[in-house]
């Protein structure tokens, strides 16, 4: 049985030593003192460890089952969901007007990490509901908000997002699901959606589907897409449930991982739907919540790697194989533990330095979302918009890479289901695909976000890195190990940006390098996070912090990232500089 312990100290370190949340001039942040966030994170960690984690393997092995149109979630899921609801964990950052607790998004994010690490498939029921809540909250009418949001905040009703159809996932302009006006303000929705997470299950009284569809006679392509609320059960004016709507689950998909989450084919047969926002502006409504949804998926990436890493460390300390080349460490045993070997260390350090950097990057992203929303800060909004594809694409690619790296520590046992390591790899894999496949994130970054507002936000990011380096130049402890590598990596990133500008008229050159650029930018962001974390750890030590081992470990882990991971930027730059010729050299027939 795999283990999981919530890394509460590391979470607190990012919130307080790095982001200094309680000192920020953002509404609601004044309450985020160490004691408060510590209590929330400890309790979230307890639930994650004691309630959700034991159900992770159960969900994987049992999966969801459909019988006579009814989808049954794995044993124990329903009871755990009740506990999440009763504890208010589904309502943390939601508006108090609808029963939420109104806490900052960064606090919600910090509490989410242990839940996702412990049981990603389970947490998606709530995650999807939160996404649907955000879309209705931002674009719904007052009447819709009053009708649906309180029960969605409490998760008595859950939510879904219905975009994908059999013939289109990325190119949603091809969508066929149609909406025909009923004449009373509602619409008849007909069509088929596939791969709908949490589309049908037995944990809520009602399911509020958010569905993209085309109103007949509207513009062609993506410009003709509108967003609709389609409840499973109609909701009467007094809030009670009415007749069953014309939506049904056709089947649940057999899939590689996240077996505990029901992935459904949803058939809409003249189901009654209610327009959210304006006609033909459905994609805009969806995009409003994209930053949050994609940050949530980026979190899934590193949270799975965190869980896998914890198990790999335990195994490396336990498994006896070979002897330490510098001298025997376990003279009473037949061999030394795996952890003595440099190649195992390299692997574990890769995982550890990624996960801790990724946590800082994700929480920083959540803090930017709070700053953008609560302070109407356009610069923070621009910056998080730029960072969103990087958080989603880079952290999920690396999350999967390191989940499999953790599996590698187990040798053959990592491949055997009994040890639980394959589940981490299988579950982490989907995060690279849904919510916009990672190749599309890279396209978004290079094709749209770099040039957004005249390139203002990427310039602001470069300035941020430059300013940090300049302000700390006199800090000898930081200079060689942190500032110099960061400077070199940032120069690589700027050179790649310059290459794209110079090749603006040759799209194949830019788009052949977009994936490398996304990874490069991810490395520079984690490099910046590590330089800042090292500085914070050094200050804590200078300030007489009692837990010297914790802070020294942080600095040493950061040094590793800067020395062994960050130089990847130069390889990515070399690739980008070769342009698209080698990528596009073959005729399609020659593949
Ligand atoms: C388990 C699971 C859960 C899901 N949950 C949901 C959900 O709740 N709601 C929902 O609506 N959908 C959901 N999806 C669907 C998911 O979002 C899509 O599968 C995804 O967006 C990709 O779409 P597609 O599968 O149609 O692939 P395609 O769009 O056919 O793309 C195939 C590949 O081509 C690449 N590609 C496509 N266009 C381009 C281009 N222009 N340039 C370069 N590369 C390109 C893509 O990156 C991808 O790698 C889920 C999928 C799975 C497997």
Description:
The protein has 591 residues and is an alpha+beta fold. The chain is 55% helix and 12% strand. The protein has 19 helices and eleven strands. The chain has a five-stranded mixed beta barrel. The protein has a two-stranded antiparallel ribbon with strand order 1-2. It has a two-stranded antiparallel ribbon with strand order 8-9. β1 (65-67) and β2 (70-72) form a beta hairpin. α17 (514-542) runs antiparallel to α19. The longest helix is centred in the middle third of the chain and has 33 residues, at 342-374. The radius of gyration is 24 Å and the shape is globular. It binds flavin-adenine dinucleotide. Flavin-adenine dinucleotide (FAD) binds at residues 161-164, 168-170, 195-197, 255, 263, 430, 433-434, 436-437, 439-440, 443.
Bound molecules: flavin-adenine dinucleotide
What is the overall number of helices?
A: 19
Q: How much strand content do the residues show? A: 5-15%
Number of strands: 11
pLDDT averaged residue by residue: 97
What is the SS-derived class? alpha+beta
Order of helices and strands: HHHEEHHHHEEEEEEEEEHHHHHHHHHHHH
Q: Nearest-angstrom radius of gyration?
A: 24 Å
List segments where confidence is low: pLDDT < 50 over at least 5 consecutive residues. none
Strand order of the largest sheet: 4-5-11-7-6
Short description:
This protein has helices at 8-18, 34-52, 54-62, 77-86, 105-118, 120-139, 142-153, 282-288, 290-318, 342-374, 378-409, 421-429, 438-449, 456-471, 476-502, 507-512, 514-542, 548-565, 568-577; strands at residues 65-67, 70-72, 157-162, 178-181, 186-197, 206-215, 225-231, 233-235, 241-244, 247-252, 263-276. The chain has 591 residues and is of the alpha+beta class.
């Amino acid at each position: 049985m795999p283990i999981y312990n919530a890394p509460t100290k590391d979470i607190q370190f990012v919130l307080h030593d790095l982001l200094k949340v309680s000192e920020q001039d953002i509404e609601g942040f004044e309450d985020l003192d160490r004691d408060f966030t510590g209590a929330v994170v400890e309790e979230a960690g307890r639930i994650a460890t004691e309630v959700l984690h034991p159900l992770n393997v159960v969900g994987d092995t049992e999966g969801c089952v459909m019988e006579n149109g009814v989808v049954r979630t794995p044993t124990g899921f329903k009871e755990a969901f009740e506990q999440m609801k009763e504890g208010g964990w589904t309502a943390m950052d939601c508006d108090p007007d609808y029963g939420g607790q109104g806490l900052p998004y960064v606090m919600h994010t910090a509490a989410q990490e242990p839940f996702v690490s412990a049981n990603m498939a389970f947490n998606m029921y709530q995650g999807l509901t939160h996404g649907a809540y955000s879309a209705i909250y931002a674009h719904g009418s007052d009447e819709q908000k009053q009708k649906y949001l309180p029960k969605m905040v409490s998760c008595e009703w859950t939510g879904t997002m219905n975009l994908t159809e059999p013939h289109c996932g990325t190119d949603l302009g091809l969508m066929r699901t149609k909406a025909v006006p009923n004449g009373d303000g509602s619409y008849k929705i007909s069509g088929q959606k596939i791969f709908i997470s949490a589309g049908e299950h037995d944990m809520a009284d009602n399911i509020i589907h958010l569905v993209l569809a085309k109103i007949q006679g509207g513009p062609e392509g993506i410009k003709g897409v509108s967003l609709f609320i389609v409840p499973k059960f109609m909701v009467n004016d007094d809030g009670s449930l009415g007749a069953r709507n014309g939506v049904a689950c056709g089947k649940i998909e057999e899939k590689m991982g996240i077996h505990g989450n029901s992935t459904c084919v949803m058939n809409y047969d003249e189901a009654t739907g209610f327009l959210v926002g304006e006609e033909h502006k459905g994609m805009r409504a969806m995009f409003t919540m994209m930053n949050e949804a994609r940050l949530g998926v980026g979190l899934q990436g590193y949270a799975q790697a965190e869980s896998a890493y914890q198990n790999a460390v335990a195994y490396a300390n336990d498994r006896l194989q070979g002897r330490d080349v510098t001298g025997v460490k376990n003279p009473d045993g037949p061999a030394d533990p795996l952890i003595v070997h440099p190649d195992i260390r390299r692997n574990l350090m890769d995982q550890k330095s990624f996960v801790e950097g990724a946590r800082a990057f994700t929480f920083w992203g959540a803090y930017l979302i709070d700053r953008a929303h609560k302070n109407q800060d356009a610069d923070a909004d621009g910056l998080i918009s730029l960072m969103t594809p990087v958080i989603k694409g880079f952290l999920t690619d690396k999350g999967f890479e390191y989940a499999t790296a953790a599996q590698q520590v187990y040798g053959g046992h990592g491949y055997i289901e009994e040890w639980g390591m394959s589940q981490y790899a299988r579950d982490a894999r989907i995060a690279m695909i849904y919510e916009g496949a990672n190749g599309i994130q890279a396209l978004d970054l290079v094709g749209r976000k770099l040039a957004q507002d005249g390139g203002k936000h990427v310039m602001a990011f470069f300035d941020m890195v430059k300013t940090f380096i300049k302000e700390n130049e006199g800090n000898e402890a930081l200079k060689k190990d942190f500032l110099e590598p960061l400077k070199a990596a940032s120069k690589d990133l700027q050179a790649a940006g310059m290459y794209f500008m110079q090749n603006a008229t040759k799209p194949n050159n830019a788009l052949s390098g977009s994936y490398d650029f996304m990874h490069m930018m991810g490395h520079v962001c984690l490099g910046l996070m590590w330089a800042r974390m090292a500085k914070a750890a050094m200050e804590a030590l200078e300030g007489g912090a009692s837990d010297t081992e914790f802070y020294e470990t942080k600095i040493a882990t950061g040094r590793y990232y800067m020395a062994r991971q960050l130089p990847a930027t130069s390889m990515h730059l070399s690739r980008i500089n070769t342009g698209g010729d080698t990528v596009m050299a073959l005729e399609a027939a020659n593949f």
